[in-house]
Amino acid sequence: MKITEEKKILLEVSGLKQYFTVKKDSIFQPKAYVKAVDDISFVVNEGETLSIVGESGCGKSTTGRSILKLDEPTDGKVLYAGKNLVDLSKKEMRDLRGDLQVIFQDPFASLNPRQKIKQILGEAMTIQKSVAKPLQRERMIELLNLVGLPAEALDRYPHEFSGGQRQRIGIARALAVVDVSIQAQILNLLKKLQKQFQLTFLFISHDLSVVRYISDRVMVMYLGKIVEISDKKDLFEVPLHPYTKALLSSIPVPNPSEKIERILLKGDVPSPINPPTGCRFHTRCPFATDRCKTEEPALRELRENHFVSCHYAEELS
Amino acid sequence: MTEMQETILEVKDLKTYFYTKRGVSKAVDGIDFSLKKGETLGIVGESGCGKSITSLSILRLIPTPPGKIEGGEVLFKGRDLVSLPDSEMRKIRGNEISMIFQEPMTSLNPVIPVGEQIAEAIRLHQKMNKKEARAKAVDMLKLVGIPSPEKRAKQEPFQLSGGMRQRVMIAMALSCNPEVLIADEPTTALDVTIQAQILELIKDLQVKLGMGVVLITHDLGVVAETCNKVAVMYAGNIVEHAPTQNLFDDPKHPYTRGLLDSLPKIDEDKDELYTIEGSVPSSYNMPAGCRFSSRCPFAESICEQKKPELLEQQDGSKVRCWMYSDEWTAAKPHKEVLSS
Questions:
Q1: Which pLDDT band holds residue A230 (cuts at 50, 70, 90)?
Q2: pLDDT given at position B114
Q3: Which residues of B153-173 are buried (b: 16+ CB within 10 A; e: fewer)?
Q4: Which B residues, 249 through 288, put their C-beta within 8 Å of a C-beta on chain A?
Q5: How far apart are CA B117 and CA B99, in angstroms?
Q6: How large a percentage of chain A has pLDDT more than 90?
Q7: A19 Cα to chain B: minimum distance (Å)
C-alpha cells in the first residue's frame, strides 16, 4: 500500500485469514469453514485512528481479535515493532498486551456475573499494574463518574444494573454505548487521550456517525473482505464502492429537512460459510454483472489514498 | 382526510412507580400525550428515562409487584385501560393494540415454527380454524416482505436472520389489524441496512393499514425520519413535546438542545462534541425542582426550587422549562449558545 507524506507504519497486517470450523451435522459431511476474515492486508499508521466498519458478520471484530491473537489467526502476518505477532508465544504476547490494549463492546460477555464491579475493575488494574492498589478505589470512582455512574455502583453486581448502566461499566461499552450524552464524553476523552499520549487507535464500530467523528482513515468490510479503505473525508464525501454508498445512505439523519436518497439493499448478508463467488457483494449489489459473479475484484487505488475493490468503481462514481 | 383527526390513544398524567427495598422508584412520573389515527409519535430519551416503562404501562405489562400504575389514565378509544379487568385487557392486547420489541428472539418461542406462532396469535383473537389461520400467517409473512413465505413459515426462529425475525414479529403484531402499534426500539439490534428496510416497512404498512404508531427509541435520526411528533423524556417526565420539524429546527428545552449537540453526525466534521455534564438524578430521590436543573447550563434559583409545568408555545410545541415562563427574569440564552 502506498504511503504518502511521512507516516510511520505502526502495525502492518498482510494476508490475514481467520477461519473457524463449523460443527458438522454428520461425520460424512466435508469440513466446513466460516471464513470470517479472508485474506486482508492493511496498515495502521502511528498516531492515527483507523476505523473498521461494517455490519455484523463482516469480520471487523474478528480482525481486531486476530491482531491481538485472542483468536489464533489461520494465516497471515501482523508486524508490530519488527515482530510478527502471529509467531509470538503466549508469554511474549502477554508482555506486549500493555502496548496493545483492547476495549470490548459486549456488555454481557465481558462482565463476570459473580464479581462485584469493584472486583471487575480492580482485576483489570492489578493485572495491568496500571494503578497501585491503594489508589485503585479512587481511580475506580473516577472512572465510574466518567461513565455517569455513582460510586455506590462499586459494591453491586452486574445484574443489579439496567442494560444501559451495565453498558457503561468498564469503559468497555464505552464505545458502543447507547446514551449519546455519555457517548459524547467518552469520544471526547478518547480524542484527548490520543493527543496527550500519542496513542494509535484501531477503532471497530458499526456506527458511522461515530466513526466520522473519531477517525483519520476508515476501512469498510463486507463478508470478510475489505471493500474500501480511505482517508475519512474522502470516504464520506466520495464513497466509491456500492456497498459503502448503500451503508452511508442507510444512516438515519437527525434532521427532518434533509431528504437523503436511500439505497435500500435487498435481503440479508449471505452466510460466510459459503460466501458468494466473485465479488462477495454481487448478490445484493444493484449494479452487479456476470463478471462480478465470477471474478473477484482486487483492492486498487482509485484516488489518492483511496482504495476500492469494485470492477466498476470508475463508471459508478 | 378527516380520519387523521381522530384521537385513538390518550395518556393522561400516567404514573408508574416501583416499590423496592431501596425505596420508591418513580420511573414514570406524570406524563401526558395523545396519538391520532395514522400518526407516528416518537418517544425519545436515554436509558432509564422511563420510555420503555411508559410503553409497558400502556399495555399493562408492568410486573406487579414491584411495579404499579399509581395514577392517571390510558384512554383507548375513550375507554380507560388502567381500570379495565385483566380479561378485557387481554382482548385488546395483541389485537387492537399490538407491540414489537427490540430483541425478537426473546419474544418468539424458539421451538415452534414461526408460521404456527403467528397462526396461534391470530386464533387467539379471531374466529378462524387452524387451516385458515395458517394461510393468513403466510399472507402476513408475505406482507412484511419475507421471501418464500410458505417455506419460512415452517422454520423455527433460529433458522432466520435477525432482520427476518424482526419481520416475523411485525407480521405477528399486525396479524390482527391493530389500531395502535407500539414499537419499542424495533431496530436497535439490527444492522443499519436492515434497519433501513424495517423502518421503510413500518412506514409502508402504517399508510396501508392506517394505524397509529408509538415509536420508542434512543435514536434521534430514526425519529427525524419516521415520526410526526416527538416527546422527549428525561427522568420520568416529558420535557419537550413538539412536531418533529419544530423539535429539530428549534429545540427548546436545554436537555433537548444538549442531546442534539452531543450527537456525532454523519454529514458534519466536528473537533469536539458538546457534553451534558453530570448525571441523571436517581429515580428514588428526585429533586424538588426541575429534574434537569443540576446539569443545566442556564439554571437559575427558581429551577432548583419549583418544578416547571409543560408550557405551551406559539409554534405548537410544549416545553417543561422555566426559561419559557413569565417568571423567568434572566436573559434568555440564544439557541447557538450551546453549540459554540
A1: very high
A2: 93
A3: beeebeebbbbbbbbbbbbbb
A4: 249, 258-260, 262-270, 272-276, 279-280, 282
A5: 15
A6: 37
A7: 21
Count the residues in chain B.
340
Give the cell for residue A20.
Answer: 473457524
* Residue B138: all three cell numbers together: 403466510
**DSSP helix/strand/coil, B125:** helix
Q: Which residue has the higher pLDDT, B158 or B225?
A: B225
Give residue A104's identity as a one-letter amino acid code.
F
pLDDT digits 0-9 by tens, B234-260: 999 999 999 999 999 999 999 999 999
- Write phi, then psi, for A210 (nearest 5 degrees): -65, -45
Closest chain B CA to residue A164: B47
Residues contacting residue A22 through CB under 8 Å, at least 6 positions apart: A32, A33, A34, A273
Q: What pLDDT shows up at residue B29?
A: 94
> In angstroms, rounded to a whole number, what is the distance separating the alpha carbons of residues B118 and B11?
29
DSSP string, B200-247: HHHHHHHHHHT-EEEEEES-HHHHHHH-SEEEEEETTEEEEEEEHHHH
Helix, strand, coil % over all residues of chain B, rounded to 5: 35, 25, 40
pLDDT of A106 strictly over 50: no
Q: Which amino acid is at B63?
A: P
